[in-house]
Request: fold
Amino acid sequence: MKIKKILVSQPKPATDKSPYYDLEKKYGFVCDFRPFIKVEGLNVREFLSQRIEVLDHTAIIFTARTAIDHFFRMAEELRITIPEDMKYFCASESIALYLQKYIQYRKRKVFFSPTGKAEGLMPSIKKHNTENYLLAVSDVNKGDFTKLLDAENIKYDRAAFYKTVSNDFGPDEPLDHDMLIFFSPEGINSLKKNFPNFEQGNILIAAFGTSTAKAVTDAGLRLDVSAPTPEAPSMTGALDLFCQKNKVNKK
Reply:
């Protein structure tokens, strides 16, 4: 099997240590990095239309660093002073540490999931079940946390602080790749929006996550590579296995 160019729908890695570059050297193809989607913060009017009062809440749940940035941006634009005793519950330790950009980090008011998954944060939330939580998310959040919070009868409000929109392609950006790699259903929607006459043909499509994989097949496209799997928990790992099994670029 011949693969010359792969489009990875993510920003270009900040360093040359990316495993994608290792795969380039190993198999002789080129990876282009071009996001199909981008994040935009809600404006004040859009946020206020949700009728959410930030200061009615005593704890905030963050599932991404992007949510932290746009939460504090919105607070500034609304001239809201976040109380010193506000508690923060984060989906991972890295998200919790990112809070230091905006607050004085103290363990007694910052909690995080030791597993990096929503379920891992629930023991801390249940321990503080008298708090009034604000779940800060995007407009396309699929509700993993809402299901868990509902199951435990936790008092909370869900509020979007940012939105995911299509990152439009210009007329000088052809889609001439042998493989396309997607990481969200919104990426598939952007593909259809930017290239309404797209025909897959021999183009390979890879997807990370079950919701992304479902979006591929729901769009009537063929899914050739999927991750995570027990054998390949990462997208690069799945791509490596695919290339090995299909003898990519082997003479």
Notes: Residues 5-36+176-245 form a domain with the Rossmann fold fold (CATH 3.40.50.10090). The chain has two domains: 5-36+176-245, 40-164. The first helix runs from residue 19 to 27.
